[in-house]
Amino acid sequence: MIKLFFLIILFFSSISIYAQHKSIEYQKEGVLFKLKYEHTDCSYEILVNDMPVITYFGLGERSGLTVDLNQYILRPGKQDITIRMFPSKKEENTFAASLTKNSFVKIEVSKNKQPMSMLDQLNATI
Known about the structure:
Jelly Rolls; 3-stranded antiparallel sheet
């Protein structure tokens, strides 16, 4: 029984790719969508509608930033967000064997509550 338990844990800890899907709803023109993200102890990709928005394959320190999403929203309706997690880099050319229990990527999608300025609208379409 204990051997089976350890084999199951070993199997799940050796999985190197983790994908998660979230959806956001495209509204009307003049709405600016932002993606705030943070991570620790992993490499990852964040895709919106299968287009890479953020790709990080650096050393495993903790970090987070905000990115505008409007350029990745091509049509009205629900949008797909995919997160792919990989083990973190240990050195410049080597990766850890698997994700750790501390590995995570956290995202938050928000939209502005106020009408966009002309500059925001220009930046959102670039």
